[in-house]
Write a structure and sequence with these properties.
The chain is mainly α. Helices cover 64% and strands 0% of the residues.
Length: 242
Amino acid sequence: MNTDNKQLPIKREDYESMLQHAIAVIEHARLEIAKHINGNIASAYWEIGKMLHERKVESGHGDGVVRQLSVDLKERYPKMGLSPRNLWYMKRFYLRYCGSDVKVQRSVALLPWSHNVYLLGKNLDDSATLYYAQETIEKGWNRDLLLNAIKLNMYESQLATKVDNNFSRTLPMEQARYANEVFSSSYNLGFLGVTNPILELALEDMGKPIGVADYQLIVPKKELEEVLTNEIKKFGEEKGGK
């Protein structure tokens, strides 16, 4: 902690309490803003996907229409991720959830778009989707953690065992990493009209959050060792690159 070599006029533990309280307030505000951003983006993408569906734009004869739509939209919104591929994902997003329970719709709407694109490719049912969406929001999973959770079949295993994590020990708030990912997403910055970086992902000394405490109850030892080795290697590469 940097105090500019000056003596604090209050006890250090009192100052630490104040600091942690301020961090918690800021992180809570950032999380709520992140949810608001995701909700608005999801609504926009939902409506575009709905339009493509209602106008009967299908793959094949509709490819030219989507490509032209992408060109015209990117001219006006160059940083918003409006590629033809993404426009097709918007249609898939609408079709996947238009018949789902409102609880599922609201949950996926709070996820970063990259999370939703990944979930769309997994063809999960509503129950599994709801579980992973809620866990992502509550525990602050970035995309890599979501990917690992699905690979480890955590939804299928969650009734048999409780998977713990170290988020509360490594982050000011469990959702801090999630909020950082939302704010740093090129899709989100483009949606907001932001072209320059506005945040440093400043959690370098917090430790990388991982949820592996009970993985040995879920997967074979060999697979567990492989997951942990990959996580440690990746973390080392991230630290070395900074």
